[in-house]
Amino acid sequence: MKKRLFLSTVVTAVTLASAGVSFAQDNTFKVGLILPMTGPFASTGKQIDAAVKLYLAQNGDTAGGKKIQVILKDDASTPDTTKRLAQELIVNDKVNVLAGFGLTPLAFATAPLATQSKTPMVVMAAATSSITQASPYVVRTSFALPQAAVAIADWAPKNGIKKVVTLVSDFGPGIDAEKFFKDRFTFNGGVVLDTLRVPVRNPDFAPFLQKVRDLKPDAVYVFVPSGAGAAVVKQYVERGMDKAGIKLIGTGDVTDDDILVGMGDSTLGMVTSHHYSAAHKSAVNQKFVAAFEKANGGLRPNFMAVGGYDGMRVIVEALKATKGKGTGDDLLAAMKGQIFESPRGPMFIDAQTRDVVHNIYIRKVEKQNGQLYNVEFDTIKDVKDPGKAK
Ligand code: PHB
Known about the structure:
Elements: H1 2-19, E1 28-35, H2 42-59, E2 62-63, E3 66-74, H3 79-91, E4 97-100, H4 104-117, E5 121-123, E6 138-140, H5 145-155, E7 163-169, H6 172-187, E8 191-198, H7 206-215, E9 219-223, H8 229-238, E10 247-251, H9 257-260, E11 271-274, H10 283-295, H11 303-321, H12 328-335, E12 339-342, E13 345-349, E14 356-368, E15 371-383
Parallel strand pairs: 1-3, 1-4, 4-5, 5-6, 7-8, 7-9, 9-10, 10-11
Antiparallel strand pairs: 2-3, 11-14, 12-13, 13-14, 14-15
The structure holds P-hydroxybenzoic acid.
The site of P-hydroxybenzoic acid has 10 residues, from helix 6.
């Protein structure tokens, strides 16, 4: 039994290794897009899928003499499924690039396969700092949590917030959000009264928020993954914490554009830090938001959509640069160092770290044209992931 298992592992490794060089001989360039299209994180999949489609609709689906084919797979945010789908896409479909990855554990489950098969893996959503170190084939177009966490930890103490309780989802990005906020906030003279971690699946925020209330901080600092913010804010308001003078701050994931519209006026004035807001004032963004809403029945794009849109751009430009003849290594090289204007603002892919470098904005929830938006009022330029300096 053991021997058999070992043998099948060897066979898989060999198959994966050869898959990387035996690209589809036809004129198709294949992108294996793995996303959570069902389950609790389906909003991430929906946003990214829509953004990838929009990018190709706007820019054409041929480049470098090849027709671009996106093969979409639903992993329902289960790491074993992501891994199995990635393997099938590499071995059977012979995809040129893997993309998507809605959550950190899904990216980590796939990274070794990218390495073995020398397939570039474009991470469009997951945001734990260390993902880019999991494989030299990872290129990230989403963000890294420490970028946002440090920015709000600098803003808060200058704005009357001296005592904070942190409340994060208990997995990679939450741990990063907690650590980088705490270290910087403490360095700035603030005090973290407690660090609370909530389960990722089926979280019940009530007991944690009660704990926050009892500790009476100036603010609760929150990280929850995209889509989960509405539940936190609802319970925060229901417990009267806003009225009790406890502010809610966080990384922009909590007031995500996708759900902000429905979160209600109690979010007015909430300050968060992030790399993207649908209200970002630039011609590129206004065009992006209008086209996205038009193509998706009025759905507002969030930061996940932008990670997908920019990720597709990075892939298509690499295909162009390699004239449709590139191996995985050639494509990877052509992705490194790309610099362009995204709907989020200026960004580039750091050639050394393969991670995104972009502005982080401090934003406040305000009404514009009768709708709630994260309105940017301060900019920290060209932020590299502070997590890489370790
Ligand atoms: C992650 O799993 O890395 C992740 C998911 C959702 C977010 C941020 C990070 O909003």
